[in-house]
Amino acid sequence: MKKNAPIPTAIPLIIGIIAVSFSSIFVKWSSAPASIQGMYRLLITALLMLPFIRPHLAELKSLTRKKILMLFASGFFLALHFLLWMGSLKLTTVSSSTIILALEPVFIVIGAFFIYKERTSRVAMAGMGVAIIGAVLIGWGDIGVSRANLIGDLLSVFGTLAVSVHMLIGQKVVQQVSSYVYSFTVFLSATAVFAVYNAVCGISFTAYPGKDWAMFALLAVVPTVFGHLLFNWLLQYVSATTISMSILGEPVGSSLLAFILLGEQMTWFQIVGGMLAIFGLIVFLNADRFKWKPKGKQAAEPLKSA
């Protein structure tokens, strides 16, 4: 049973949705390479978490080699996600990239089926199919815009696959370590992966104007602390399905912000494809509510949330 939240859960949920919607805007506003943005975003977030690490030091010291390897693997795929997704924003529009990114739950279910043998309902599968058709329409529309837009869409797809692997690994690891230790070590691992990548590629660690450093800090504080970490905190009080629904708010919020702040326009393919993707995700995330139950058992067996 979930605990009672100290404040109405709608308040932090709305704050979180608005916060993550700014992520793509900050990426667009920075001229730094995606690998540098991702590295400093995660490094600054880990540094902000550092003052609160003392109660978790004993757990950190007791981590086994297997757990450390799992945490590093999760961090590796988180770094790969940021590298590909942030890179996609350099080539395609905010709306296309974030709508494709919102397909994360679909990829997770597919991965969970093959890795953990988890099954899903026919209604969820139907919603998944509609969402994928919507994403294909977005990519199809970008073919006529430019080759760069299409490559950006593909990078977003691969970035979504990477974050899905990160989540699937995390699904197992968080059962063995606290969420704070998980987040802190994964962020540090991803930062290390980025540092090695940047060093090997000869990318400068410091040659960036003040505006870029401001964007690095904003990426850490706004979408990461007030977005993803806030959602992790909310899991104590609301279901995972409720948190997952926030994924639908990001492409809508990001697209509106991109229109207002960046002057980006949406094509009809993006609008229709985006609407299909979001509708499919709504059906997918609420599939359990559509399950048929015999009349005699309806009162005794309440619907379960995913």
UniProtKB/TrEMBL annotation:
Location(s) in or outside the cell:
Cell membrane
Provide the primary localization.
membrane
PANTHER family for the chain: EAMA DOMAIN-CONTAINING PROTEIN, OS03G0707200 PROTEIN-RELATED
Q: Which organism is it from?
A: Paenibacillus albilobatus
Q: What is this protein called?
A: Multidrug transporter
Q: Which UniProt keywords apply?
A: Cell membrane, Membrane, Transmembrane, Transmembrane helix
Give any Gene Ontology cellular component. Answer: plasma membrane
What membrane topology term does the record carry? Multi-pass membrane protein
Q: State the InterPro entries in the record.
A: Diverse_Substrate_Transporter, EamA_dom, EmrE-like
Segments spanning the bilayer are 7-27, 39-57, 69-88, 94-116, 123-143, 149-169, 181-207, 213-235, 242-262, 268-287
Domain EamA residue range list: 13-139, 151-284
Pfam families of this UniProt entry?
Answer: EamA
Query: What family is this?
Result: Belongs to the EamA transporter family.
